[in-house]
Design a protein that fits this description.
This protein is mainly alpha-helical and about 475 residues long. It folds into 3 domains: about 260 residues, ABC transporter type 1, transmembrane domain (ABC transporter transmembrane region fold, Up-down Bundle); about 80 residues, 3-Layer(aba) Sandwich (Rossmann fold); about 55 residues, no CATH class. About 70% of the residues lie in helices and about 5% in strands. A 4-stranded antiparallel beta sheet has the order 2-1-3-4, covered by helices on one side. α7 packs across α11. The chain is elongated, with a radius of gyration of 33 Å.
């Protein structure tokens, strides 16, 4: 199911065409490596050298060199394509995740900490970007195809022995699938620990001065060390699980050599098979083991990439997005706002506000006073539709606010946050960030009323001063107008 959704996402971005070209190049490389070059080598060694056919030898040596060079070029080409595709997909996924994070419902940030966000943006996009160009390519097109080719060769040599060998691989693969469930569980566990570490580091950066002031640096360092040790231990456990089932698999597969020697030896004694054929079967059998090991070696990478992609897909699904355009556009002036018996709980159980009612008419100024956590910010958030009501009504000009588009409601609201957020640019850019139509004259008039015009004009670049790189030019209280 998840792979179908990923495939659909690739089609939307147009990468599926590039991946198809990549896969065909890899298939061509495999055919040359497994079939064409060995065929030419056999012709040279078994036919032209024993017969001293110089002309034929020269032709086939030239063919060998040309095809070998072609193979080298194709290998370089598909390696280059895979790396470029991986980087492009990772870049696009990071852009997509970041873009979607701007449009998710506020509840998403209540339910997910900073570690989850950083995990999505960094690790998940990195692993998900490798899924098709690296992991699936190496598993299926560089492992499974070779395995199939060698299996066909073995079937042509001896069907009974090949089927016996194949049954061992089937048993080994079933064991691999069973153990793989444990690896998926462990990968999810490691992922959660990693998110916790991200959150802890972010908290340390955000609370740097508090940590220094309270002299709890050693305590914080020890706590982080414990988390890192837990992360390391779980990774070691994952490696042990992988190592154990790889060794079990190799033990099962090693029986194939015994089968070939024992039953092949009987057929040699009976004159059915030659010693050369047994040697050839052992050689192809060892190649089978190598190619299948190549396949299962990437199984953990496959699990990690699919889990990461599933988390990204969950984010981009509509259930996390705000529907900004649903409803009518609020284009008239706001004359009246009413709250009627409004109740709201962030967790759906414990009410932050209960049966709250008030009216605000145009040109009225209302102050909501209360202790921390009494619901002042919640009321503003509900008016802006950052959260949806659970009980009661909010009316704008006599109509429920949910009848209007979220975008048009927010365009009518001026909202000064408790924490100042400054964009990395000039004073003018910070003002125009939410109102691109405002003129410099209008900006100057606002700051004159705030008694800040003269101070700003005292700066070398005036209103074009980069306030982001000089955050102390204006106090927090005054810059909050941004």
């Amino acid at each position: 199911m998840i792979l179908k959704e990923i495939k659909s996402l690739y089609k939307k971005t147009g990468y599926h065409k590039k991946l198809m070209i990549l896969f065909f190049i890899i298939i061509g490389t495999v055919v040359i490596e497994v079939m064409t070059i060995p065929y030419i080598e056999i012709q040279i060694l078994d036919k032209y050298i024993p017969q001293s056919d110089i002309k034929g030898l020269v032709i086939f040596v030239a063919m060998y060199i040309a095809i070998f060079l072609l193979q080298c070029y194709m290998v370089l080409m598909h390696c280059d394509m895979r790396c470029i595709l991986k980087r492009l997909i990772q870049k696009d996924l990071r852009e997509k995740v970041f873009s979607n994070l701007q449009y998710v419902k506020a509840k998403f940030y209540d339910e997910n900490n900073t570690g989850t966000i950083l995990q999505l943006l960094q690790d998940d996009t990195s692993k998900a970007g490798e899924l098709f160009p690296i992991v699936i390519t190496e598993m299926f097109f560089m492992g499974l195809i070779r395995f199939t080719v060698y299996l066909v060769f073995l079937l042509f040599i001896n069907v009974k022995l090949t089927l016996a060998i194949l049954s061992l691989y089937i048993i080994g693969f079933i064991i691999t699938l069973i153990v793989n469930r444990k690896t998926v569980e462990k990968i999810n566990q490691i992922r959660k620990i990693n998110m916790d570490i991200y959150s802890y580091i972010n908290e340390g950066i955000q609370s740097f001065f508090t940590i220094k002031t309270l002299e709890i640096i050693e305590k914080r360092s020890k706590e982080l060390k414990i988390k890192l040790e837990e992360f390391s231990k779980n990774n070691i456990k994952l490696e042990k699980i992988i190592s154990i089932y790889q060794r079990v698999f190799e033990l099962i597969i090693s029986i194939s050599t015994i089968i070939i020697i024992y039953f092949g030896g009987i057929e040699v004694l009976e004159g059915i098979m030659t010693y050369a054929t047994i040697t050839l079967m052992i050689g192809y059998s060892s190649q089978l083991e190598y190619e299948f090991n190549w396949f299962i070696k990437h199984l953990t990478d496959f699990n990690q990439s699919v889990i990461s992609y599933s988390k990204i897909l969950q984010l981009v699904e509509n259930e996390h997005k705000e529907m900004l355009e649903d409803g009518e556009v609020l284009d008239e002036k706001v004359e009246k706002i009413e709250f009627e018996n409004v109740s709201f709980a962030y967790d759906g159980h414990k009410n932050v506000i209960k049966n709250f009612s008030f009216k605000a008419n145009k040109n009225e100024r209302i102050a909501l006073i209360g202790r921390t956590g009494s619901g002042k910010t919640t009321i503003t958030n509900l008016l802006s539709r950052l959260y949806e009501l659970q009980k009661g009504k909010i009316l704008i000009n006599g109509r429920e606010n949910k009848e209007y588009t979220i975008k048009s409601i927010r365009n009518k609201i001026g909202y000064i946050m408790q924490e100042v957020q400054i964009v990395p640019n000039t004073i003018v850019d910070n003002i125009k960030y939410v109102n691109n139509d405002i003129t410099l004259e209008e900006i100057e008039e606002i700051f004159k009323q705030l008694k800040l015009h003269e101070k700003i004009m005292s700066f070398k670049d005036g209103y074009y001063t980069n306030i982001y790189s000089n955050p102390n030019l204006l106090s927090t209280r005054r810059t909050s107008i941004n």
